[in-house]
Specification:
Main location: membrane
Domain ABC transporter: 337-550
Order of helices and strands: HHHHHHHHHHHEEEHEEHEEHHHEHEHEEE
Radius of gyration: 34 Å
Bound molecules: adenosine-5'-triphosphate
Subcellular location: Cell membrane
Transmembrane segments: 41-59, 130-155, 161-182, 242-265, 277-296
Number of strands: 12
CATH class of the largest domain: Mainly Alpha
Oligomer: single chain
Distance between the termini: 56 Å
Protein name: Thiol reductant ABC exporter subunit CydC
CATH topology of the largest domain: ABC transporter transmembrane region fold
CATH superfamily of the largest domain: ABC transporter type 1, transmembrane domain
Strand order of the largest sheet: 6-9-10-3-11-12
Length: 550
């Protein structure tokens, strides 16, 4: 509940729309209740008229038509306003989440898996954005209609008001509260089970080929079955609770009806109430209880919204990997990159880098070699300020990274990382990520530098070929070269290359190293690689060993 309240400002931003939706929903319910009440009164009075009493037909028949019309128009308006506000809230929620997520990227290592993240960004947001439309709005209007009907009964049939008020209160407050209390655990487990299912599907799809080849498809399927069985179990639990809640609400409706009938008959007997009015009140009571029909669904939705709110706030409150400076300094365009006695360890692990020092002059090309797992990529991560060292200082042109805006640091360096992705888009758009608005000639030049121009030219749609999942498939080497072209296209004065020739055959690798020197002229290059580097490609080759460069 506390987590849900954290989203109150976002809901309140659309408060006028919600109030209008609430008002229209109230008019719909009141018109529906009044329609039933008037019809009951009208039908009974007409029957009695045939028994010899005088009756004006015109007023009730126009009331019936009037209420029907009002109900239809108000319902339409409520849907229009409510859905419009919900869609706007959806966009506000996404904006809120992404604004909090981006400064926290990369997310603390292995804290959240992809499937879970997808779940939070989609299903949890959906659960929250319809909370007003499906849960809060109907509940509030039902509460207001219940209060109004109790007041009407207190005036016309005081004997029934108490029974009705208690039954309505029970249906709108006690039953939902009991359902929330009992269903909280199952609701949370069901949301988490949904996320587990998504993770199992994504893992299965991503690793399908390996699972087949390793003969592990059966165990993956069993794990998926277990996840789905758990999710269905939780949903069944919630379903049972909803059915019991529905039964309780129906029972309370019957209590209110019988109470009103009882008090009505006594009042008619005593001559305190006319028969047609009693019939009208009975039907109005029935009509007003119709609104409680949505309550059970609303409770389910509210429980899901609470669980979703908890998961989203947990995501939004993850610690940021680095703190942005309060008053950032401008980034010097030129100037040496300097690591000064830098020590860095991943949480709970021994240091990867220990008192490491390195100075790279502007336009210098440095390669860093070393065995797998020694800390080469970590060094690049620190330079991009994706994490801060525990000791020592990293700076550009004499200014510490901690005094620079992360966005400025990232604009200063282009990265080709070990797992740079090919986006599901055209080759052109994949390249333009490196430099928005780059001219066609520059795109081809970057492709040529990455040894990919020939392949792209041979494709019928050239630069406009869609690549990536569901598009044209590139070989691992071609995909790598596309990412490389993207990095080369960037105008960043510093190029960081992490295993740039990974997945290239030796001939292409040698060709790549040859063009790198030319393509990177005037830029600083720091390249991490296992490959044997041909003479003349870089100015210096250093080796990372025991946390230091030698
Ligand atoms: N996010 C992380 N959390 C904890 N430990 C990590 C993390 N990333 C890397 N490590 C560990 O830190 C060490 C250095 O990793 P790093 O990726 O920097 O090595 P590398 O030299 O680039 O290896 P490779 O050449 O295989 O890419 C490794 O032992 C690795 O297991």
């Amino acid at each position: 509940m506390k987590a849900l309240l954290a989203f109150a400002p976002l809901f309140l931003r659309r408060s006028r729309a919600w109030l209008l939706a609430l008002l229209l929903s109230l008019i719909t319910l009141l018109a529906g209740t009044a329609l039933l009440g008037t019809s009951g009164w009208f039908i009974t009075a007409t029957a009695l008229t045939t028994a010899g009493l005088a009756f004006n037909l015109f007023v009730p028949s126009s009331l019936v038509r009037g209420f029907s019309f009002i109900r239809i128009v108000a319902r339409y308006g409520e849907r229009l306003v409510g859905h419009d506000a919900t869609l706007r809230l959806l966009s506000d929620l996404r904006g809120w989440l992404f604004a909090r997520l981006f400064p926290r990227l990369p997310l603390p290592d292995r804290s959240i898996r992809h499937g879970d993240l997808v779940s939070r960004l989609t299903a949890d947001i959906d659960a929250l954005d319809t909370a007003f439309l499906v849960a809060i709005g109907p509940w509030l209007s039902a509460l207001l209609v219940g209060a109004g009907m109790t007041a009407l009964l207190a005036v016309l049939l005081p004997g029934a008001a108490l029974a009705y008020g208690l039954a309505m209160g029970g249906a709108l407050v006690a039953v939902p509260a009991a359902m929330v209390l009992c269903g909280r655990g199952a609701g949370r487990a069901s949301v988490e089970a949904g996320a587990e299912m998504r993770m199992a599907v994504l893992d299965g799809v991503a690793g399908h080929a390996d699972l087949v080849v390793l003969g592990a498809l059966g165990s993956a399927a069993r794990r998926f079955d277990a996840t789905t069985a758990f999710a269905s179990g939780q949903r069944r639990r919630l379903g049972r609770q909803a059915a019991l809640g529905g039964l309780a609400v129906q029972g309370l409706g019957a209590v209110a009806l019988v109470g009103t009938l009882w008090a009505g008959l006594v009042a008619v007997e005593a001559g305190a109430l006319e028969g047609p009015v009693m019939a009208g009140l009975l039907l109005a009571v029935l009509g007003s209880f119709e609104v409680t029909g949505t309550i059970v669904r609303s409770v389910g939705k509210a429980t899901a919204a609470m669980a979703a709110a908890e998961r989203l706030t947990a995501l939004a409150e993850l610690p940021a990997p680095v703190q942005e400076p309060a008053s950032p300094q401008p980034l010097p365009r030129a100037g040496a990159i300097a690591f000064e006695e830098v020590t860095f360890a991943y949480p709970g692990l021994p240091p990867v880098l220990e008192e490491l020092s390195l100075t790279v002059a502007p336009s210098e090309r440095v390669a860093i070699a070393g065995p797998s797992g020694i800390g080469k990529s970590t060094l690049l991560r620190l330079l991009l300020r994706l994490a801060d060292p525990q000791a020592g200082r990293i700076g550009i042109g004499g200014v510490a990274l901690t005094a620079l805006r992360s966005a400025d640091i990232h604009a200063h360096m282009a990265l080709l990382s070990q797992d740079s992705p090919v986006f599901i888009d055209t080759i052109r758009n994949n390249l333009l990520i490196g430099r928005a608005g780059a001219a066609e000639d520059d795109l081809w030049a970057a492709l040529a530098d990455a040894q990919l121009a020939g392949h792209v030219a041979s494709l019928p749609q050239g630069l406009d070929t869609v690549v990536g999942e569901a598009g044209r498939t590139l070989s691992a080497g071609q995909a790598r070269r596309l990412c490389l072209a993207r990095a080369l296209l960037s105008k960043a004065p510093v190029l960081l290359l992490d295993e740039p020739t990974h997945a290239l055959d030796r001939d292409t690798e040698i060709a790549f190293f040859r063009v790198l020197a030319a393509a990177a002229t005037g830029r600083t290059v720091i390249m991490v690689t296992h490959a044997a580097i041909p003479e003349g490609t870089v100015d210096r080759i250093l080796t990372l060993r025991d946390g230091k460069l030698v």
